[in-house]
Each structure stands twice: as structure tokens, then as C-alpha cells.
Amino acid sequence: MSETRQAVFLSYASQDADAAQRMCAALARAGVEVWFDQSKLRGGDAWDAKIRKQIRECALFMPVISDSTQARAEGYFRLEWKLAVDRSHLVADDTAFLFPVVLDDVPDATARVPDKFREVQWTRLRPDDALDEFAANVAKLLGKEPEATNGKAEKAELSAPALAKSAQHRGKPAWTGWLLAAGLVFLGGAAWWAVTPRVPPAPTPAVSTDKSIAVLPFTNMSDDKDNAYFADGVHEDILTNLAHIAELKVISRTSVMQYRDSKKPLGQIAAELHAAYVLEGSVRRVGNVVRVTGQLIRAGTDEHVWAQAYDRELKDIFAIQAALALEIAGALQAAISPTQKNLLTRVPTKVPAAYDLLLRARGILNGYLNWDPDSTEKMRRVESLLRSAVELDPDFAVAWSYLADVHAQIYIFGVDQTAERLALARAALDKAVHLAPDDPDVIRNSGAFYYHALRDYGQAEGHYRRLLALQPNDSGVYTLLGLLLRRQGKWKEALGEFRRGYELDPGNLQRQVTLLTTLFFGARRYAEAEVLATSLAGKENDPLGEFTLDRLEIPIRARGSTKELRDHLAAIPAGLKNQPAYVFAQRNFALNCGDWEETVRLSKVPPTAGSDYVETATCLMALGRREEAQQILAGHPEELRGKLQLQPGNITLLEDLARVEALLGHASEARAVLQQAFTSLPPTGDAVTEADLRLLHAVVLCWTGDKEGALRELAWSLQHPLGANVHVAGKVSWFAPLHGDPRFEALLNDPKNNAPLF
User: What is the side-by-side order of every strand in the sheet holding 101-102?
Assistant: First the structure.
């Protein structure tokens, strides 16, 4: 790297990872590079060589001293400390090198640190000091001017125990400054698993609202209307380029696409998207010649701030996109760092035909949100397009990364769940990373691979944090990061990321649903959820949409009130009552109300007929109609076991089989299947799936005669996010054998079992 002597090496115990990340973010804002081992692949020659090299070359060595380091007699951070002490003997006495930082009330006299650390001043933390002051002082110490922070110094909000009230001044010149806490970063994968200098995680964006911009879908002006995919692709790339500019708040593609061909006034669109500026544009393609136009409008005054037209050959399309982003940034007086400029001006491929194939593939991928019966054919088509793209340009890293993601999706959804398919995904990703390890698309698809294919949530988190460092105002990445943190059981941190995603893009229905459902399903923050739901009421014109129905479940879970959902369903227009969504909603309402007879009746009405045979059978068992239930379940164990031969790790199939065997009275078989499901969890754990499995365990034990075990598991579930709900558990058929048991009723009536969890 260039200027290696300007880097800071951060050394900390894993328990203090939250503080380490915010520290990195603040230093990054001040223009200071931070090195630290985030790979979790401790030991080995590669690790040892990298660590030793970085400690030899860093400008400052910053050990984080805390209650966690006090509690650990052994730890890899202690090896890092020893290496730093060894180097300090070679450093002149008047040169700053060791820079200890203390998180907790660790006494000087009993601190478990090398004696060399005691010869310099320690920076102790206070909860109400500005973090950016700390970073600014470090930058000055390194002889560089800190970068601007938009005048919004981030405040320390440490979750550490009681912090010391004042700094200790000893030895060398006083260094003042303070720390903040957040979440751990794990980077890794293939050749880049070894510890290397990292891009620091992104801070919470400090963006002025007068630089918020919505890039509306570009109009396809080509004579060939089949070129719409090309116009959409250029639009998406321009939107992504603008998102690289930290001072701009760019509304997500998901939010703006709903305004394609909209007749609404521009001011209204901007208001709904919470954007101060709107960018409109068009794309015309004739052969190998492209014309891209754009005009930037200040929504409040309808003033045209900037307009430009670009006529170039297709091979110059990336230059057009870069020029457009740079000129808009200039018009809005948004600063662009060298790193951001490099991202804007990069050329992913020099083969226009390969880029065209990528846009076709990406257009298909953008066309659906969830895997459906047609998805397999679509993904095969996408795979073919991307294979052709990398054949035309073997150095097209972005296409390789998308190909890796497609292979992974084909693997994940059971279309081809073989080791060979996973190996294809791994090989494509390795190729992409080798070619362009710092490309945002490569980083994003790397995160997706670790998240979905390998279920290595720590590694995936590292990639998404790297992406946030490059795109600090990408609301979608905050949501992805929140989902990963949730998988790791970091629920409070996950909720914080969901909030950031929503705040950046409040008009995005996906962000709204994610935040809202997390508040009431995960955190049991019902009052806050209802306030948010009320503020969003009327913004969705779909009375049977996911957002509306989720919102109306809040009163049920909060206080057992079904009136709100009943009234809503009763008011549905007659023309919508023949829609499949209405029948499904009615059936779910019957389930939540404990109306088992109505649930069984609706299970025979198309399109719900046979859609959830396990739930129907459970209701029949609860009604005492055992023979009818067994008829519904007949043949399903064999069918499910056959599917599991091809997809042995499919949690949904395992859960269905466990419930079927339990309802049939096959206790040992049901518990064996459930154990198989638990062993399929990744080694590092999966808090979301575990919550599902623990609740299912309670159901299985309930129906196989182990009431003690069922109550024990239910008690656990009632005290964990995404677990059971007291108002639902008392009505659904899952726990019918426990109804009337005073221990069961005591659990449901205990106020702490419906109190906020975090």
C-alpha cells in the first residue's frame, strides 16, 4: 500500500468488537487508515506473516484495554501486544507509537498489560464526548488534516460498563479523544482470507437533506423497444455511481421504479420519496452509438439545476456514466474523495457485447423478488447469459460475481443442490475476487455467497460492511447487514441497522416492512410499532398486501385484539374478495382467532386447498377428528423423506416432516427429524432458524405426550425474539394438548412474556 506508515493498527479482544468498528469508522472519516485482523482465521503462516508485517509498518499501535482483556489470560490480542512492544524498543522515545485506549474502569495498577504500555498516556472514555474529536486528534498526531465531517460530530454512545470520568496524563504529550461502539467486521473468502489492510466500516451517514436525489427510471428512446433492458441497466448503473458519493443521499432503485410512467407532478414524487432533487433522463441506442440525456431539477422550485446530453460509442458507456455522476456532484457541490472518483471512473469491461449480456441478465434478476415456479427457468437463462459474457471477456469481474450468485441461488433453492454446483459458485467468485477485489458488485455478491450458500454470517457481514464503506448511503446494504446481525443473535444492533435503512429511504415499502415486522415480531416493541404503522397508514394502496396485513397483526400480538383485522377484512371491496390473497387472509385470521372449524373449512376453498395440509391436520387433531387428520397426512412422510434425499439440509422440509410424524404419533421419528434439523445449523449458529426450531420443538413435544418438555421449550421461546406470542399461542391449534393446563395458562398470563425483549 502507499503511505503504509500513516496506518493505525487496532488490537482488541473479540468481545470489544463493537467499539472497534465505530473507532474505525471515525478514523476513516478523518482520513486515517486502520488495519486490524478481522478474518477469524487465527494462526498459520499467512496470518502470522501479515500481522507481523502490519505491526512493523503501522504508524500507531492502538491496543484497546477493557474488562474483556482483563478477563482473558490468553488471547491473540496478547500476541499482537507483544509484537508491538518488541517494535517499540526500536522507536525513538520522542516518537509516538503506542496509543492505549481504555473502554472500562480498568485500574492502572492491576491492568493486565505489558509494562511498556504504562509508560505512555492512556485515553479513557466518557459516554458523552464526540467521537470525531478523537479521530481528529489522531489525524493531527499523524501529521494530516482530518477530512470534513459535515459539521456533525458523532456522539459516543458506549454500551460498556461505567466509564472513567477523566483521562490519565502520563509520560508523553497528552492525546485527547474518545471512542464509540458498534459491530464486528469479518472479512474473508478464497485468496483474500488472510489478514490484509482493510477498508474501514462505514459510519452512520451524515448527509444533508438538501443533497438528497431521486433518479427516476430512464426513458427508452430507442426505436427498438426491446432495448428497454439497456435503458434500465444504464439507469441502475448511474444510480449506483451516485450512491458512491458520500455527501449525496440517493433514493433506492426499488423506491423510484414505482414512478415509471407516473403522471404525478414532479414535486409530489419528490415529496413522497423525501428527495430534494430529481434526476430525469433518457437513453437512445442505435447500433453501437448511444445517446444519454439527463436533467437535474430542484423539486421545491422546479428549477433546472443541470442538464446534459452525451453522444458516444457504446464502448464509452462507462465514461458517460462517470461524467454524469461527476457533473451532478459538481452541481450540488458534493465533495468527491479520490477513492470515490476511482469507483466512478472504473471500466468493468472493454467488451460492449459482454456488458450488454450482463444488463440482460441483471434485468431478469431484477424482475422478481421471491423464488417462484418460473424462477428455475429464469435462472437458467441468466446463467447462460452470464456464461456468454465471461466467455467474451474472461476479465469481466462483475459478470463473474453475478455468475457466482446465480450458481449459489440454483444451489440454495434445491434446483441443483450438489457439491459440483457449489464448486461452480466458489470458482466463479474466486475469479471475480482475483480480478477486482474492491469492486462494489464483487463485494456485494461475495457477501451474498457467504450469507446464503455457506451460511457463514460473520464473513458475509464483513463484505457488507466493506460495501457500506464504499456506499455509505445505500439503504439496502443496511438492511442486509441487519438481517445478518439478526442471524448472529445481535438483535439490538440489527434493529439499529434496519432503522438506518428506513431513515435513508423512508418511501421504500421493503424498508418499512422490515423495520415494522422487526419491531413487533422480534423486539415486541408494540407501542413503537403501532406509532410507525399509524404514520405509514394509507401509503400503500394494497388492502391485501403484506405490509397492510402485517400492520393489522400488531393489535393481536400486543393485546389479543382481533377487531382491527376483522374490521379491515369486512371492509374489503366485493371485487377483491375473489382474490387468492383474500382467502389466505381469511384463513390466517381464523387461525389467529382459534377458530379451528373455520380454518378447516377454508382449507378446502381454492386457492388454499391443500396449501398447508399440516396446519389443517393439526386443527382436525385439535377438534378430535383424528381419522380425517391421518387421511390428510397419509403418504406425506414418504414424500418428504424422498425430497430430503435430494435436499438433506432443507429446513422447511425437515420442519414439515417433524410435525407430520408428531401428529401421526411417531414420537421417536419426529424427534429424530428435529435433531437432524438442529444439526443442520451452521457451526457459528443461526438465531433466526434456532428460534423457529425451538418453537417447533415445543409443538412436537406437545403432540408426542411430553408436556413437561413442551412447556420448557415454550418458556424459552416466549423469552426470545421471533419466538412464541402469548396471545397467539393460546389460540392456535399447535398447543391444543396444553389447553387447560394451569402451567400453560401461567406462562401466557405472565406479563414478562409479552414485554419488550430489547
Answer: 34-35, 8-11, 60-65, 101-102, 123-124
Cell numbers describing residue 71 = 478477563
Grid cell locating 563: 377487531
Cβ count near 254 (within 10 Å)? 17
**Rounded CA gap, 586 and 599, in Å?**
9
d(CA 202, CA 211): 19
> For residue range 94-136, what is the model confidence (pLDDT) as tens digits?
788 999 998 877 877 678 899 888 888 888 865 445 677 888 8
- The pTM of this model reads 0.69
All cell numbers assigned to 749? 398470563
**Could you give the CA distance from residue 278 to residue 275 in angstroms, rounded to a whole number?**
7
Query: What contacts 24+ positions apart, CB below 8 Å, involve 381-390?
Result: 382/406, 383/407, 383/410, 385/357, 385/358, 385/360, 385/361, 386/357, 386/358, 386/361, 388/357, 389/354, 389/355, 389/357, 389/358, 389/361, 390/354, 390/431
The 3 state secondary structure assigned to 512-527 is HHHHHHHHHHHCCCHH
Name 527's Cβ contacts closer than 8 Å, sequence gap at least 6.
558
Determine the angle formed by the axes of helices 651-663 and 636-646, rounding to 10 degrees: 160
Is the peptide bond prior to 580 cis by the omega test (within 30 degrees of 0)?
A: no
pLDDT at 171: 34
**Rounded distance between C-alpha atoms, residue 285 and residue 86, angstroms:** 63
Q: How much of the chain, in percent, has pLDDT values that exceed 70?
A: 86
Q: Is the model's pLDDT at 188 over the cut of 80? A: no
The domains located in the chain, with CATH, are 4-193 (3.40.50), 209-347 (3.40.50.10610), 613-754 (1.25.40)
CA-CA distance, 755 to 758, in Å (whole number)? 9
Residue given cell 472519516 in the structure block: 29
Buried b vs exposed e over 748-757: b needs ≥16 C-beta within 10 Å?
A: beeeebbeeb
What does the alpha-carbon distance between residue 607 and residue 674 come to, in Å, rounded to a whole number?
A: 30
CB-CB contact of 562 with 595 (8 Å): no
Closest C-alpha to 59, from 178, 139, 142: 142
Grid coordinates representing 681 are 445449523
Separation CA 241–CA 721 (nearest Å): 37
Query: What's the pLDDT tens digit per position in 226-243?
Result: 789 999 999 999 999 999
Q: Which amino acid is at 338?
A: P
32 has a pLDDT exceeding 60: yes
> Phi then psi for 28, rounded to 5 degrees?
-65, -40
Query: Residue 461 and residue 40: Cα distance in Å, rounded?
Result: 12
Cα–Cα distance measured from residue 728 to residue 591, given in angstroms and rounded to the nearest whole number = 9
Containing 319, the helix (H) or strand (E) segment is helix 317-331
Cβ–Cβ < 8 Å for 116, 85: yes
Surface-to-core class of residue 301, CB atoms within 10 Å of its CB (0-12 exposed, 13-18 middle, 19+ buried): exposed
How far apart are alpha carbons 533 and 547 in whole angstroms? 9
Strands 303-313 and 289-298, sheet pairing: antiparallel
The answer on pLDDT for 2 being more than 80 is: no
Could you give the percent of the chain with pLDDT greater than 90? 58
Q: Which of 546, 247, 185, 189 is nearest to 370 (CA)?
A: 546
Say how far apart CA 528 and CA 550 lie, in whole Å: 14
* Entry field: residues in the chain: 758
Closest C-alpha among 544, 465, 471, 538 to residue 497: 465
pLDDT one-digit tens code per residue, 245-255:
989 999 999 89
Q: Which of 288, 273, 149 is nearest to 213 (CA)?
A: 273
First to last CA, the chain: 42
In DSSP terms, 133 is beta-bridged to: none
- Band (pLDDT 50/70/90 cuts) for residue 538 is low
Going by their DSSP bridges, the two strands 249-250 and 212-215 should be labelled as parallel
Return the C-alpha cell found at 558: 400486543
